[in-house]
Amino acid sequence: MARLRRFRSYRPVERPYTRISKFKKKSFIRMSPPRKVTRFDMGDTFKQFTHVLDLVPKDTLQIRQEAIESARQTSIRLLEKKLAKNAFHFKIRKYPYHILREKSLAMGAGADRVSTGMQKPFGKPTGVAVQLKAGDRFFTVQVDKPALETAKLALERAGKKMPCSFSIIVSENKAATPAAAAAAMATATA
Q: Domain residue spans in the chain?
């Protein structure tokens, strides 16, 4: 299997060069790489929990799908180990849609004169990334108050798998308070 190229060349968010051709079928990317992130909602998706924790990036950047899947696996593993499967709701809020392209360079002896490459080559699709702005909610975990520290630890572990620094924002779920539940019950019976 081919090694992944270092991500520092893909980290900045910018609109990629798009091929414009007089032939219509050459004006778009014909292939989409396979998605590695397959699950976006995990845990108990129907229950209302009392607290919401959000993982928020401090910088604007792109994150490759391999990093997202790695962060998802580590945080879900910890949540399922420490809590029951119906004691949390984990959600990935952003979908990786941005197709990354790569122009292959020559390798081996005598390739230094060939491997400089063009300035913005079109390249072949190699992977998918998500574009995040600073302050966007990326991962969300909903738990009850006793499981708050475990959820914080799970999001900290997920943040360490990503290429930038993240902050964790804790808030109370307004829909899960007893007053909101009573108001919802009153409107349902009326």
A: 7-14+31-103+122-189
Residue closest to 155 by CA, chosen among 83, 72, 62, 99: 72
- How far, in Å, are 17, 97, 126, 138, 143 from residue 76 at the CA level? 36, 23, 27, 15, 13
User: Hey, what CATH topology would domain 7-14+31-103+122-189 get?
Assistant: Aldehyde Oxidoreductase; domain 3 (3.90.1170)
Question: What is residue 115's predicted lDDT score, i.e. its pLDDT?
Answer: 58
Average pLDDT over all residues of the chain: 81
Query: Low-confidence residues of the chain, pLDDT below 50?
Result: 1
Q: Which residue shows structure tokens 């499981």?
A: 147
Query: What is the rounded CA–CA span in Å between residue 103 and residue 124?
Result: 6
Alpha-carbon 44 to chain mean position: 20
First to last CA, the chain: 62
Q: pTM value?
A: 0.77
DSSP for 38-94, please give it. Answer: --SEEE-SSSPPSEEEEEEESS-EEEEHHHHHHHHHHHHHHHHHHS-TTSEEEEE-S
Predicted local confidence at residue 156, as pLDDT: 93
